[in-house]
Design goal:
With 588 residues, the protein is an alpha/beta fold. The chain has three domains: 7-30 and 72-222, Phosphoenolpyruvate Carboxykinase, domain 1, CATH 3.40.449.10; 227-295 and 386-587, Phosphoenolpyruvate Carboxykinase, domain 3; 299-378, Phosphoenolpyruvate Carboxykinase, domain 2 (Beta Complex). 28% of the residues lie in helices and 22% in strands. The chain contains 17 helices and 31 strands. The strands form seven sheets. Strands 1, 4, 5, 6, 7, 8, 9, 10 and 11 form a nine-stranded mixed beta sheet that branches. Strands 12, 13, 14, 15, 16, 17, 25, 26 and 29 form a nine-stranded mixed beta sheet that branches. Strands 2-3-19-24-18 form a five-stranded mixed beta sheet, covered by helices on one side. The structure holds oxalic acid and manganese (II) ion (MN). Manganese (II) ion (MN) binds at residues 228, 279.
Length: 588
């Protein structure tokens, strides 16, 4: 039975049902009894495997279709009326053309299935940040993941009332044909259509589709920012908590930073870290002139391989209850394993494809992009402000990437506009885990390359314009944990030790830390970074090397930034061109 009298919702759901022809339309409430019945149904039809209730209470396992294991950037489209508005970094298709294509695929795709109506809110319901959406889907797996990743529930109808102000989303698993897989966004209609994939980043529409691609458009129109950023609270020994946001391309340790554990010497002094978000931040100017952030999500969709008690105990702990594991190794005792969890691969286990797995075979048991979908509340260091409808005030925005040379451990931009420049040119060198040549540099502005729902140069202009709306803006920094020596050894230990660089960031925010001004920005002097307890691993000479700004290396950087900017033609904001010109003048 429909749970609303909202005509806009009812008409649209009816139109989708007429097209997809499900046997039944199920209006979900998000109540626990209903979700439990869906879990049972999913176990009965083989979609989910119930895991060991004693060791992993409320946890389930899912094998995906082997052809459906990751985001598909080549099949992700921004369908705005003018191609020029999508910009050079997005795939574009005219809305009518995409809809005609999709109509053929959706037509009758739910015959013999149910269509679930999932009401959900991104961020706490009723918060000034909250945005409401519906995902219509034929996949119980998608429903149960959405129930973890978003605030799902019938309360959405009360908050929405009769308003047409909601994000529409249609999803069908159809027949999982990868050649007919589409992740389509219609920002002018607040509409998301995804088909032939059930993978999180494609099909859990609240995440990348809504909270980044559609929300980046909403933010531009309404004067806020939707960013691919973690949110971390850092508590000093005096109890004061400072919040920072950080954006990194993949494979740069974003989840580890979001759940950072301070080094022992810091812990003993009373430093603590609090996770507000691990992937997405919505940022709005507050009445106090500061920039305030919420994490619009309610769970973590984390990469499993490499997550261990050593690398990220908080992430691992988050997966101990109420979690859905996808494409990891399934152990005979109904628990899970993945490469990098520990050094004891299980015997008699089943690999991500569902086949018996021999760890000695040399073949990986878990897919490299296998995932856990875990409730954020499980995280031992979840911030007490996680559910605060007002969010948290942000003191620093941190950009970063994986760079073997050139970019120092940490530096501060000279101004907001210069910080936008720093974000617009950030990039990362490819690791063996990514497609392409190892070491090849991919520029990934603000880590938004696959997620900005409109022209990237307009997005930079929006960032520049935001300065006028924030009387007391966060300071903007860049970090690089990955600088190496000439034998390719990392110079910096990373992980919890990164707090040492963050301490300098906090010191710059409250005016207590010193720096030297260089042409790239403010860089700490070696003595400004605390090495207490780390003396055996990082010598003062190594730290100097980590902080070195070498004009010869920056000359190559400037040439590469020029090529990157050339893609944006005359849309490139003048302030960013000026920042590049200043660097060019320096390197000669
Ligand atoms: C993610 C991503 O899964 O950025 O968060 O791809
Ligand atoms: Mn992400």
């Amino acid at each position: 039975m429909a749970l609303t009298t909202n005509k806009h919702v009812l008409d649209w759901v009816q139109r989708c049902a007429d097209l997809c022809k499900p046997d039944e339309v199920v209006w979900l409430t998000g109540d626990e009894a209903e979700l439990e019945a869906l879990r049972k149904e999913a176990v009965a039809d083989g979609t989910l495997i119930k895991l060991n209730e004693e060791k992993l209470p409320g946890c389930y396992y899912h094998h995906s279709n082997p052809n459906d294991v990751a985001r598909v950037e080549g099949r992700t489209f921004i369908c705005c009326r003018n191609e020029a508005d999508a910009g050079p970094t997005n795939n574009w298709m005219a809305p009518d053309e995409m809809k005609a294509k999709l109509r053929d695929i959706y037509k009758g795709s739910m015959i013999g299935r149910k269509m679930y109506v999932v009401p959900y809110s991104m961020s706490v319901m009723g918060s000034p940040f909250a945005k409401y959406g519906f995902e219509l889907t034929d996949s119980i797996y998608v429903v149960l993941n959405m129930a973890i990743m978003t605030r799902m529930g019938k309360e959405v109808y009360d908050h929405l009332g009769d308003s047409p102000d909601f994000i529409k989303g249609l999803h069908s698993s159809a027949d999982m044909d990868p050649d007919k897989r589409y992740i389509a966004h219609f920002p002018e209609e607040n509409y998301i259509m995804t088909v032939n994939s059930a993978y999180g980043g494609n099909a859990l529409q609240g995440k990348k589709c809504f909270a980044l691609r559609i929300a980046s458009n909403l933010g531009r129109a309404e004067g806020w920012l939707a960013e691919h950023m973690l949110i971390l609270g850092i508590e000093k020994p005096n109890g004061e908590i400072t919040y920072v946001c950080a954006a990194f391309p993949s494979a740069c340790g974003k989840t580890n930073l979001a759940m950072l554990i301070p080094p022992e010497v810091y812990r003993k002094k009373g430093w603590k870290c609090w996770t507000v978000g691990d992937d997405i931040a919505w940022l709005r100017p507050g009445p106090d002139g500061r920039l305030w952030a919420v994490n619009p999500e309610n769970g973590f969709f984390g990469v499993a391989p490499g997550t261990s008690m050593k690398s990220n105990p908080n992430a691992l702990e988050s997966t101990k209850k109420g979690t859905i594991f996808t494409n990891v190794v399934l152990k005979p005792d109904g628990t899970v394993w993945w490469e990098g969890m520990d050094k004891n691969p299980p015997t008699d286990a089943v690999d991500w494809k569902g086949n018996p797995w021999d760890p000695a075979s040399g073949v990986k048991g878990a897919h490299p992009n296998s995932r856990f979908t875990a409730p954020a509340k499980n995280c031992p260091c979840i911030s007490p402000k996680f559910d605060d409808p007002q969010g948290v005030p942000i003191s620093a925005i941190i950009f970063g990437g994986r760079r073997a040379g050139t970019v120092p451990l940490v530096y501060q931009s000279k101004s907001w506009a210069h910080g936008v420049f720093v974000g617009s040119v950030m990039g990362s060198e490819k690791t063996a885990a990514a497609e392409g040549q190892v070491g090849e540099l991919r520029r990934d502005p603000m880590a938004m390359l696959p997620f900005c729902g409109y022209h990237m140069a307009d997005y930079w202009q929006h960032w520049l314009d935001m300065e006028k709306k924030i009387a007391d803006p966060p300071k903007i920094f860049n970090v690089n944990w990955f600088r190496t020596d000439d034998k390719s050894n990392f110079l910096w230990p990373g992980f919890g030790e990164n707090l040492r660089a963050l301490e300098w960031v906090l010191g710059r925010c409250d005016g207590t830390a010193d720096a030297v001004e260089t042409p790239i920005g403010y860089v700490p002097k070696a003595e400004d970074i605390c090495l207490e307890g780390l003396e055996d691993e990082v010598s003062p000479e190594t730290l100097k090397e980590l902080l070195r700004v070498d004009p010869a290396q920056w000359k190559g950087e400037v040439a590469d930034i020029k090529a990157h900017y050339a893609k944006f033609g005359d849309k490139l904001p003048q302030e960013l061109a000026d920042c590049l010109a200043a660097l060019e003048k320096w390197v000669g």
